[in-house]
């Protein structure tokens, strides 16, 4: 796949959104007219036809093949460029310092981005101006819009501000890090996708038919997969049925723990990430997860985040769209968030801004601009918009693993009070971060001795 082969349909997309809005308005209008039986029947027929069309699109998407973008691990590995695969056979002597840097870095980047997730750059900048905050931000937000709005089941938006924070606020992107940890603890390094499904059903609080935004413990394809599982569907169908998010960002937001436990072993980190991601992603959605896991694993043994990125690239097919995009980003050398944003969306205009690729470009460019400065790295990355709690989290994870906890300014760490607020079933309301790091370190030591 090359960028020239990408089919962009932005005009059709906006027209469809407009027509769907018209339909909703007619439904509301029909309520005022007394909801005639003919109207209900018409809507039921529309819904049936729409589902049939969606199923046809799903079949069309899944039937497309590209020799540069396989979905099976053996072929993916055959198409990799040469790489180091395993950087050391010894447990890194400074592992704990780097692990805490990576973990706190992930928590900080996620918390910074979550306040204005997906807000356009100009709107985020306007909110910062209104609140008197720097932009890009150099500390947590002093205020947020809709402060009393629910934030991931057990929190509120105001929890994301520096004056009201007493722990890492709840967020799906921090929960994914814990889910991967629980998966490895309960099933080991040879976990199956069925094991992963069991972990999701056991710990994620989503019931059949539960759609209210305040109750969402996971998003997009993850919620769809969990809903399918709860409805009795089995893998692999449960991961792809009615899931248009096959090449989106979510899989690589689940990858960090695999990088943490495979410090210095990027090939193994990518293998674990593949097994996880391919449950409900395909092609570049999977490669993104493999790339991020491998990059994080490499970050534990290098002193330059871009070196880690280049190592991460050696674990995915060299000619896939994702790899082409990362190599392009490394050539650009943007000076700031605005130039990075403009470059990405000039090249990928019309692509969904929740895609694995475009958001990964934000991470890589944020690492370039940050130049080993933690505050600048997460601030510039989050300022690029997109799924910026995810991008801020992953950029923070990578740079944190490179520089270690002692080089992360205390104002990013101290407000958490060494604990994180979570919403998983059968788990406490808060977890101590040091205890979580102890558990990750134990797994990493087990792996190195296998």
From TrEMBL:
SUPFAM superfamilies: ADP-ribosylglycohydrolase
Residues annotated for Mg(2+) binding in this entry: 387, 389
Pfam family, one: ADP_ribosyl_GH
Cofactor mode of binding and number, as noted: Binds 2 magnesium ions per subunit.
GO molecular function (one): metal ion binding
Cofactor(s) in the UniProt record: Mg(2+)
Nucleotide-binding is among the record's keywords: no
Keywords: Magnesium, Metal-binding
Protein name: ADP-ribosylglycohydrolase family protein
Organism annotation: Massiliimalia timonensis
